[in-house]
Amino acid sequence: MIGGIDFFSTVDSFEGPTRFWMFFVAIPLLAVGGWLTQAGYVGVAARYASGELSPVIKDSAAYLSDGRGVAGVGRTVDDRPAAGPFCRQCGVRSDADARFCSGCGQSLA
Hints:
The chain is mainly α. The protein is built from 2 helices and no strands.
């Protein structure tokens, strides 16, 4: 600012500006300060974008792949086999921690 004032205050006189060099020092410093300020906000902007876009991407992947997911995102169909015991009455395999059959309701104990 001092460099700019010095330059414009010597327009009417025959003297040249003496502190105009300060103007050229200030411009790169302002640029570096601006870049550092932007870099400080990159993490905040990335977290905001991730929070806004992740649910949309998950829902889109589930819709486009009929619930099977794309690269592990959007999987809504559970077609993996259960890891629990078989029911003695109907033969359906239940979850490992289930106490009753998910098919017929018979006690698994």
